[in-house]
Amino acid sequence: MPLVRIDLREGKTEQYKRAIADGVHRALVEGAGAPADDRFQIITEHPASDIICDANYLGIPRTDDIVMVQITLSAGRKLAQKRKLFRRMAEILAETPCLKRENLMINLVEVAWENWSFGNGEAQYTT
């Protein structure tokens, strides 16, 4: 159910990008209750000039190593579960690949269950 888009500046190693992707997925499973085999991710690298973000918005100091994670998922999670997801993702990515918590931006986009098709031209989540 989650579709994850990970945006970061170009020049990172394949190992770094895989660690980000693996950590995001692990956080979704542990923090948001996503099924372990429900993994759909897109990683996009951008030239430095194509990522524009305030270096101190809300008093959080950011560097050029910012990683933006946008997750489209089915609506219905409570605020406590979303907070757990945010916290868990920051913890996991701080461990590997040592992403500073300040450089992780997460955005959730909630959609209705009937807005998903996982193949075959069918809306699998509808009854």
Give a quick set of tags describing it:
about 130 residues; alpha/beta; Macrophage Migration Inhibitory Factor; 4-stranded mixed β-sheet; 2 helices; 4 strands; about 30% helix; globular
Account of the protein in words:
A 4-stranded mixed sheet has the order 2-1-3-4, with helices on one face. It is globular, with a radius of gyration of 15 Å. The chain is of the alpha/beta class. It has one domain (3-115): 2-Layer Sandwich (Macrophage Migration Inhibitory Factor). Helices cover 28% and strands 24% of the residues. It has 2 helices and 4 strands, in the order βαββαβ. β1, α1 (14-32) and β2 (40-46) form a beta-alpha-beta unit. The chain has helices at residues 14-32, 79-95; strands at residues 3-9, 40-46, 67-74, 104-111.
